[in-house]
Amino acid sequence: MPRFDFDLITIGAGSGGVRASRLAGKYGAKVAVIEESRPGGTCVMRGCVPKKLLVMGAHFAHGFEDAVGFGWSVEGARHDWAAMIAAKDRELARLEGVYRKLLGDAGVTLVEGRGILADPHTVEVGGKRMTAEKILVAVGGWPIMPDFPGREHVITSNEALDLKQRPRRVVIVGGGYIAVEFAGIFRALGSEVTLVIRSGQTLRGFDQDVRATLAEELEKSGIKIRRESIIRAVAKNPDGYAVTFDNGEGLTVDCVMAATGRAPNTAGMGLMEAGVKLNSKNAVIVDEWNRSSVENIFAVGDVTDRVNLTPVAINEGRVFAETFFNKNPMTLDYANIASAVFSQPPVAVVGLTEEDARKAHDVRLFISRFRPMKHNLSGRDERTMMKLVVDTASDRVLGCHMVGEDAPEIIQGLAVALKCGATKAQFDSTVGIHPTAAEEFVTMR
């Protein structure tokens, strides 16, 4: 008689949890996945996918404006926010169905409800207990809400994706990925947008040239940035919501959105009671094999607060399944992982920033700033910035950074080059595709 009900119980049916569970099931394991919301997790249901759909919708506003410079007559174009949200919801419903089918086809049992650890081998869902030899925690993160009077009037990105109508005036608290992305969405579709940031610049942690370039472009588009500013209170009034800042100034808007980061979603799961060690941010502490402080409990994805990106969670799930269910031990290489910010214009980077590179290398810098060919006719005042950070001694390219149209598509290819250890000489010897923006990366001197 089996000692446990399952070989693996995964708590969380997001990107990492689903990948690990599907592969483990494919390799012959008896697997259950527990999910308290919708299969697909943060990325598919509350993050990357719906946000990118809204970004795409917002881009049409720029497209209509730019088309005039190419001879098009664009009259009577208007945007229906509710129709876009409804279309987004239909796509999410389709994707949820896909995820359910993927799990079913892999022989994985989907259990709907909140999973709580009763002991290192037992998970309780709605009063029912089930056991497993191994438990994988893949519950992701959750938006952090600032603490000030009136916070009950503030929404996060979760609610922003489901707004029934577009707010005419929006304050967004924060200057990271989510903040600048939603600022671009709302602004392109006609809202008055104010970004409120505690520091002097957006996108903390990115290369300084990237940060400065994006902020300049955001402000050109009409987004107001209140630097070194803090919200003290939000109050409901007849005209909307009254926002009070630390310097005593105020602003009335229709919507206040917090985009001040995300925290591991570990509260109330029974992890510490089961012996699982968490760090100061309540993230599960794991080793290179994704193993926690408890021998049979593992964790992948944002709940570990390592590199909080969907493809990273997917690959962590993959190497977990390969190692423990396919007798193919492997770990994930976290070096040179590319990332993108779907702001308007977008940002994409791979490798080291100039600041980080200088800590260990003597570096050479190559920077190009130019007006994209498209805007010579459209008339749009938008510029692209590209930057290479190169190690002087070895000539190896340490970092590639871009702000501008198609940046994520371009940097994805350069991530392969950095993974292979490409040098600046090899970049220079590569023949570019003309006329493209991407060719600038192989012609910078």
Structural description of this entry:
The protein has 445 residues and is an alpha/beta fold. It has three domains: 6-143 and 263-325, FAD/NAD(P)-binding domain; 151-260, FAD/NAD(P)-binding domain; 339-442, 2-Layer Sandwich (Enolase-like, domain 1), CATH 3.30.390. It has twelve helices and 21 strands. Strands 1, 2, 3, 4, 5, 6 and 16 form a seven-stranded mixed β-sheet that branches. Strands 17-18-21-20-19 form a five-stranded antiparallel β-sheet, sandwiched between helices. Strand 9, helix 7 (208-220) and strand 10 (224-226) form a beta-alpha-beta unit. The longest helix has 25 residues, at 81-105. The protein starts with 5 loop residues before the first strand and ends in a 16-residue tail after the last helix.
CATH superfamily (homologous) name of the largest domain: FAD/NAD(P)-binding domain
| CATH fold field value of the largest domain | FAD/NAD(P)-binding domain
According to CATH, what is the class of the largest domain? Alpha Beta
Q: Count helical runs.
A: 12
Beta-strand percentage range: 15-25%
Gyration radius, to the nearest Å? 24 Å
Say how many strands there are. Answer: 21
The CATH architecture designation of the largest domain is: 3-Layer(bba) Sandwich
Mean pLDDT: 96
> Multimeric state of these chains?
single chain
Q: In this structure, how is the largest beta sheet organized?
A: 7 strands, mixed
Helix content: 25-40%
| Uncertain parts | none
Sum up the overall morphology in one term.
globular
How far is the N terminus from the C terminus? 69 Å
Number of domains: 3
The structural class is alpha/beta
